[in-house]
Amino acid sequence: MELFPDLPFTSWVDTRATLHRFAQIVGKVRLAASPRRNHWWSVPFHVTSRGITTRPMTDGSTIFTIDFDFLDHRLDITALSGRRYSFPLAGNSVADFYDQVHKGLSAVGADVRIALPWPFDLSDSGRPFAEDTEHAIYDAAAVSRYWRVLSQVNLLLEEFAAGYSGKTSPVHHFWHTFDIAVTRFGDAFVDQPPSTDPVTREAYSRDVTSFGFWFGEDAFPEAAFYSYTSPEPAGLADEPLHPSTADWIERGSSHLAVLRYDDARAAPDPRAAVLEFYDSAYRAGATRAGWDIDKWTSPGGVTDPVITAEQRGARQA
Fold first, then answer.
1. What is the DSSP letter of 13?
2. Between the CA of residue 29 and those of 101, 248, 261, 266, what are the distances in Å?
3. Which residues of 60-86 are buried (b: 16+ CB within 10 A; e: fewer)?
4. What is the pLDDT of residues 7-42, one digit of tens each?
5. Are the beta carbons of 12 and 139 closer than 8 angstroms?
6. Domain of life of the organism in this record (predicted)?
7. CB burial class (10 A; 0-12, 13-18, 19+) of residue 225?
8. What's the CA gap between 208 and 196, in Å, rounded?
9. Is the pTM of this model over 0.90?
């Protein structure tokens, strides 16, 4: 399978908008039916061999899972009891999808209600899902391409995550911003202003460097690998990034390290280019933030000093 297939932003704008809202509906079910975890780790999706999953959830009596199947292009709601409700993703508006999800939850015996049944931080955030008949485009080929890219980036982020032995988030797919990310945490508490919204307060209660990939948006209409450090240390954007096609861009009052998807695809070794980018962005943020880089390094996912020494000796032999 081709690594990083062509993914023009304009080729699936309408499908992406529909799928993003589908994901937000299921994500809000996950939010309502999962024990809360630090930094909202209970909220995102995880990649499977067929699509993305909520992993098991409960309403207090019924254990169930919701899976997007991007091979057969269906949504599957399955309970531990064996009850199952499944329907095609194509041919539904957001309003139809919202209705089907609630029918499915009832069919498997799960009593879950979304607290805020409208999009979060999207252009139509004031319109309830139940009234959205505008978004109804679902191009199965485009969704398959999205999922292939998501799966490939998922494994790259898993590989990159192995190099840090400090507190690290899972690799997960956020339905809020429709990106996939992994975050490395420092040990400093961050004193957020009282006016900061509760989502941000929990997500950034510690200092972090985060790494991910997103599929583009109207303000940045192309897919890209990214990294940021929060709180942003002084002089971050003066640090070099690699490969040379990566750069810093301004995002509000902060900076984002960006390697555009098409630049990564054009590199002689795209996989190596992305890993080099993440590492350079990490070193930029960690150095400026005063992290002890050597303390938390775990090359190849190994922290045992004996094995590390043996590996070092084998490379030198």
1. H
2. 9, 36, 31, 39
3. eebbbbbbbbbeebbbbbbbeeeeebe
4. 999 999 999 999 999 999 999 999 999 999 999 889
5. yes
6. Bacteria
7. buried
8. 17
9. yes
